[in-house]
Write a structure and sequence with these properties.
With 336 residues, this protein is α/β, with parallel strands linked by helices. The chain folds into 2 domains: 5-140, Response regulator (Rossmann fold, 3-Layer(aba) Sandwich), CATH 3.40.50; 160-333, Nucleotide cyclase, GGDEF domain (Alpha-Beta Plaits, 2-Layer Sandwich). It is 39% helix and 26% strand. α7 (183-203) packs antiparallel against α8 and α8 crosses α10 (299-305). The longest helix has 29 residues, at 112-140. It starts with a strand and ends with a strand.
Length: 336
């Protein structure tokens, strides 16, 4: 484990030397000294301590402002204040309530065990919190932005089920196109097309789950999901007009299951966020049946979207591969 970095703020040379010696003897980490609160800004500019231990002397009441400096310049550092009982203690407590810049107050006279246990416990708590933050940040990179509920939604620790609208896009005749175009040119055009799809998904408050080679998969959740998803699908289909890579769009709504796939217990295992379920398969099947410049969707999602300005064409009861019963569908043709 990486040693802790400690900083002691103490303007009394004697008590500073005693505390520094004890901290180092206890093996709590690398300890440095700020002999005056005035030295703090310069020292903190070049250091990121895990904890700052501030020995408060009541004859220097203005020195409490140093705690604010610490919180501002080293927001992740724990701030521990050592203080004498009586008026000084009341002053420090009042300052804490007012500024929230102190994590722990330890009253003098110091008991070795009480003091060092408090320091050790706080350092351990901060270490665990940082490990959890690092783990959360690592997992967050696996989850598409907007795929979780709310702006600050918690990362899913297990698979979750929810109602969503799933949108698939897919290039038409991509096998023929890739034979007709130089590979690099095909890749550049494909990347431009899929990037434009992703931008539309973002504008309409959806989330790209993945790119599927010749297309993309997106989900929409929360209030207004039907309307937003259909507006997005229609805007994407409009882009097919005159495009060198025409594409179709499929939309379906219903329950999906989302989570991280892969063995988290296996070292080096690659994990990936994905959304699965019958609704996903239905949306993909409808996309495969949609002609270039059209959106093929279930009648249910079309009615829920209430797009009164656009009139879809009825497709009737459609037989969908993998589904026992036919699905009532409609088509929005954006090329006419």
């Amino acid at each position: 484990m990486t040693p802790y970095k400690l900083m002691l703020v103490d303007s009394d040379p004697y008590t500073a030397s005693v505390l520094l010696e004890d901290l180092r003897a206890r093996g709590l980490g690398q300890a440095s000294l700020a002999a005056s609160p005035l030295e703090l800004p310069q020292l903190l500019e070049h250091s990121a301590p895990d904890a700052v231990i501030f020995n408060y002397h009541s004859d220097r009441p203005d020195s409490l402002t140093a705690c604010g400096t610490i919180r501002l310049m080293a927001p992740k550092a724990a701030v521990i204040v050592i203080v004498s009982p009586g008026p000084a203690l009341k002053q420090v407590r009042a300052w804490t309530r007012q500024t929230h810049s102190i994590d722990v107050i330890i009253e003098k006279p110091l008991s070795d065990e009480r003091f060092f246990m408090a320091v050790q416990d706080l350092l351990n708590a901060r270490r665990v919190a940082r490990e959890m933050e690092a783990r959360a940040a690592q997992l967050a990179n696996l989850v598409p932005e907007g795929a979780m509920p709310g702006k600050h939604g918690n990362l899913p620790s297990e698979a979750e089920m929810f109602d969503a609208v799933v949108v698939f896009t897919d290039i038409r005749n991509s096998s023929r196109l890739i034979r007709q175009m130089p590979p690099h040119e095909f890749f550049e055009v494909l990347n431009e097309v899929l990037s434009s799809h992703a931008r539309q998904v973002g504008v309409h408050e959806g989330a790209i789950v993945k790119f599927t080679g010749d297309g993309a998969m997106a989900i929409f959740r929360g209030m207004g999901r039907s309307y937003l998803a259909m507006r997005c699908a229609i805007e994407i289909a409009k882009m097919s007009t005159g495009a060198s890579m025409p594409f179709g769009v499929g939309v379906a709504q219903g329950l999906v299951i989302a989570g991280l796939l892969g063995d988290s217990a296996k070292a080096g295992q690659r994990r990936q966020y994905d959304v699965i379920g019958a609704t996903v398969h239905l949306s993909a099947r409808l996309c495969a049946m949609a002609e270039a410049g059209t959106v093929m969707c279930t009648r249910a999602v079309s009615q829920a979207a209430r797009l009164h300005a656009l009139a879809p064409e009825p497709a009737g009861q459609v037989a969908v591969r993998g589904f026992d019963t036919k699905v009532d569908c409609v088509v929005f043709n954006l090329l006419t």
